[in-house]
Amino acid sequence: MLGRLCSRFSERLNRYDHVDPFCIAMSIANFAMTWGVTLLAPLLICFALAIISGLVYMFFGTVLPLIEPKPFTITYCIHVAIAMFLLFNVMFNYFLCVTTKHTGESYEIVVRELAEQTNFDYPEDEHAVQEYEASYKKRMRERHRRMRERRNRANNDDSSDSDSDSGRPAWVLLGSHEWGFCMRSKQPKPPRSHYDHALKELVLNMDHYCPWMANCVGYFNYRYFLNFLIYVFVAMVYAVSITFNLFLSIDNHRRHRVYTRNQEGNFDPGAHIEKVVDPRYADLSKEERQTISFAFLICVAVGVGVFVLMAFHLYLACSGQTTIELHSNFGRKRRARHRGVMWSNPYDLGWKRNLMQIYGELSFKAFLPSAREPTYLPLPIPGERGKRKRFAGVGKRDEGVGVEMGGAEADMGGFEAEEKEKLIQRGAGRGQRPPPTEVMTV
């Protein structure tokens, strides 16, 4: 075990052209984070399941009998039905978030359909993969060289011609619809995909790695992830609403004041307690009061935290971004602002169509439990061409619509589209919205 860890650390260190203290520190940090997350993830899953199980036990064992002491009444059955509906949806989506695979047959089908719709000649054998890797490396070297030359001309400073820019992620230099190459998994890299160090896999539309799920959130499970957050938040709102009055009724400070007054007046310490406490809850035991307080506070804390995360991801979903792309887009907007132009997200089709990329045809059924795969391809493409073949029902691509985006000569890729991009952005500055298939890297 120790030998395997040492060998993997050496592999990380060997990726640098030269070794210095900074390289060693970065390798140690990356190595520790990857293995720390990998080891911590199972514990976090168990902790999450323990919280869910504890809240369910407290609801059926303490809260529900206090709200409706008589079982099988209409009120009792309504509360049970609501609780079971929310619990099933939470567990269903959580299970699929954890177990969904980002590789395999579904991945191969999707990437080949995407390659067909973007006119990318997907390499099918080892020799073709090696040829594409060589052409990709040549393309990246040329773009780094052009970037340095452009920066030198802008600064009029020959000393800025350094290799410092070569440390930028290669995907930042690619066009929005342009294919790259993953050096770690040794396979063509579809647009918007990233390599996940924890899973050791190339993930389509990667958003982030979630240690609470021991899985990466991406193209195949993003709908489950969003639904999980939504149902957890709704469940916490429901739990807080039914325990709020219980929590107020067991306020220890108010009970203490009444008890103190009664003792000072030589009255029964429990007398008149019903004046400040709901009579139904005046005789609660200490264990019941502790259970209600704990359940209420846990639900409030979880509800607030999940609401923030849910709102953030709903914003990303409605704006056609992932968490990774959001950070990159901030930099692109800032650079565009310095150049006096407007920048527009090439993946943004409008909030409704952006949600359709995740949920398919929008309806109430989209939020019900379903293990179906995404309807649309991971790259926003207008019209029926953007749907997967199994959902579109057609396999023929629209003639004359496709744009060459896959090879080294891709007119829409990265630095090849610089002049066209400036014209597009100037048009956007005059109020014209650029088409979603255009590449606007800054």
UniProtKB/TrEMBL annotation:
The keyword Membrane is assigned to this record: yes
Keyword match Metal-binding: no
Residue intervals of the Palmitoyltransferase DHHC domain: 178-326
Reactions catalysed according to its record: L-cysteinyl-[protein] + hexadecanoyl-CoA = S-hexadecanoyl-L-cysteinyl-[protein] + CoA
Transmembrane segments: 74-96, 228-248, 294-316
Localization in the cell: Membrane
Protein name listed in UniProt: Palmitoyltransferase
